[in-house]
Specification:
Layout (H helix, E strand, L loop, with lengths): L36 H26 L3 H29 L4 H27 L4 H24 L4 H20 L7 H19 L9 H32 L4 H22 L11 H32 L7 H22 L11 H11 L6 H23 L1
Helix pairs in contact: 1-2, 1-3, 1-7, 1-9, 2-3, 2-4, 2-6, 2-9, 3-4, 4-5, 5-6, 7-8, 7-9, 8-9, 8-10, 8-12, 9-10, 10-11, 11-12
Length: about 400
């Protein structure tokens, strides 16, 4: 994953699109590069899978099975995130938008829908099922076809493309064999996930692909908006509950107010500055790209946590008030710390310490009477202090 690109192709001529074009590398310096309608459709379908994963985590925590829920959520979200991420980086380098490319993406989308359909059963059984594994393998094998096409049309990166295709295909065989291996589920999953993460590191050592920094930053920003949508959905559910039951209004108003402050602040913190200029070295690119697993997972988990807080306010949860508060505070703190690591900038000066400090304060809010509200207030204060300091330095 490098921005260097020799012999790169110009962007597809959409006005004169052919049914099939050579899959040459696109230029990382291409002006006005933005997400395509097909990429947006791909993201839209992943909303379903992310929603199912967050819903499964929500119900597991409510039933006081938080540990099992987190394990299941981590596994499902890895499948969602890794398939999305591989598609995104490939598209940034090789999106020809011709007929074979579109059909392959449709297959990937179909795999995402299959995976989403198996998520509820996976949370019940606490192990990957045929639908989750099958949907994931469908998504990944479609990408193998894309890499094989790239290996034919891009001689400068032929070895890289073939390594990607071979590595991905080999790991999919292992995923299919996963249920039949004698070890416990979690160790098997961790080993295969680490192998998946190693494939790009191995492949990119030959000749780095020509991804576009602005395009990548935009795509990650768009998925951030999608996962924050889970929090908005939970806040909406709180509003609906308040309107439907007047007797719960006093308990739900602080959750509604805190939930909205959380969503606004998490958005503000992420989009505080453009991220494309951070993608300068191979090491930073891998840390930034892989580190977003925790950013995306935490943002979606905030929505699940708000759902738990709503249920706890109505005495519909087996978990206590402190546990319900932690269901919101822990993912919020994780989000803040991860962004502090991934988006750290020299110009932030002493304000770079505000993220970890806010995370510590957030982790103390479950021991207050209104944990969601105080979490939201803490995040809003973080944003306000940053704005004041930035204005003073201007």
């Amino acid at each position: 994953m490098s921005a260097s690109a020799a012999h790169t192709a110009p962007p597809p001529a959409h006005g004169a699109r052919r049914l099939r074009m050579p899959m040459r590398a696109r230029s990382p310096h291409e002006p006005h590069r933005a997400a395509t309608p097909l990429e947006l459709l791909f993201d839209l379908v992943f909303v379903v899978a992310i929603s199912e994963a967050a819903s499964g985590l929500h119900h597991a925590i409510v039933e006081n099975h938080a540990a099992d829920g987190l394990v299941g959520y981590g596994m499902v979200f890895f499948a969602i995130w890794w398939a999305w991420m591989n598609f995104t980086w490939f598209a940034s380098a090789y999106d020809t938008d011709d007929l074979p490319y579109r059909l392959a993406v449709f297959v990937q989308i179909t795999g995402a829908l299959i995976l989403a359909g198996g998520v509820p059963a996976m949370f019940e059984a606490r192990m990957p099922n045929v639908a989750v594994i099958g949907g994931y393998v469908v998504m990944r094998l479609a990408l193998v076809v894309q890499w094989l096409r790239a290996s034919v049309s891009d001689p400068d990166r032929r070895v890289t493309a073939r390594h990607y295709a071979a590595g991905i295909a080999a790991v999919q065989v292992a995923w299919v064999a996963l249920p039949f291996l004698p070890w416990p589920v979690l160790p098997k999953f961790v080993v295969l996930a680490l192998v998946e993460l190693a494939v790009p590191m191995w492949a990119e050592r030959n000749a780095a692909t020509s991804w576009h920094p602005h395009h990548i930053a935009e795509r990650y920003g768009l998925l951030t908006l999608i996962v924050l949508g889970e929090t908005i959905l939970s806040a909406t559910a709180a509003v609906q509950s308040a309107l439907a039951g007047g007797e719960r209004l006093s308990a739900l108003v602080p959750i509604i107010a805190g939930g909205m402050l959380i969503v606004y602040s998490l958005w503000w913190v992420y989009f505080d500055c453009p991220a494309h200029d951070l993608l300068t070295t191979m090491r930073r690119v891998f840390v930034w790209g892989y580190g977003h697993y925790f950013v995306f997972g935490a943002a979606a988990a905030v929505g699940a946590g708000l759902g738990v807080a709503i249920d706890a306010a109505g005495a519909q949860a087996a978990i206590g008030s402190v546990g319900a508060g932690l269901a919101v505070a822990v993912p919020v703190a994780t989000y803040l710390v991860c962004l502090w690591i991934l988006h750290d900038r020299p110009e932030y000066g002493w304000t770079r310490a505000l993220g970890p400090l806010a995370a510590v304060i957030v982790l103390l809010t479950p021991f207050t009477a209104q944990p969601v509200l105080w979490t939201g207030v803490t995040l809003a204060a973080l944003v306000a202090v940053k704005l004041v300091v930035r204005r003073a330095d201007a």
